[in-house]
Amino acid sequence: SSRTQKYFELPADIKGVKVKLKQENDNLNIKVFILGVIISIFVSFIRKEKLKNAEKYRDNVLQRKYSAFVSKLWLLMGTGMTVKAAFAYIVKTGQYKGVLSKEIEYSLNQIASGMDETAVYEELGMRLALPEYNRLMSQIAHNLRRGNYDLLEFMEKEVKSAFEIRKELARKFGEEASTKLLFPMII
Length: 187
Prior knowledge:
mainly alpha; 6 helices
């Protein structure tokens, strides 16, 4: 009966049931867009934190393995092996599984494909992205250019230095562990 009228007025109730008018919200699209932006920022922040934590973990693992790696390399080179042969032996034995082994294997593949050995060692130090490895690999590359006559002396000094670094690292991790345990001890 009201089809021709411009407006329709709802009754308050129909047969004892209350009736309410639900109007469409014009701001719903804006709210969904803002919520999407907030969620995407939150997800990107979480991914960035995961990458940062993975990089920190990788660096910690490499730092822990540095002393043993330098000692093993010095020992193998002291037996008369070349740097390349020592790296091949380290990869073959599988003693350093993980990032270090993969990076050394990649470098050996680069050498096998014809790249300059000194450039490969310098690039390995850059890829490992820690000052200790970078210094070691650049020194190895430098000694390969000049000749290997004082490489063992350098390696012996580096083993001693690496042991000191290892002691400092152990002290640092011990302090971090005691700091993390401080709150539970207080409780």
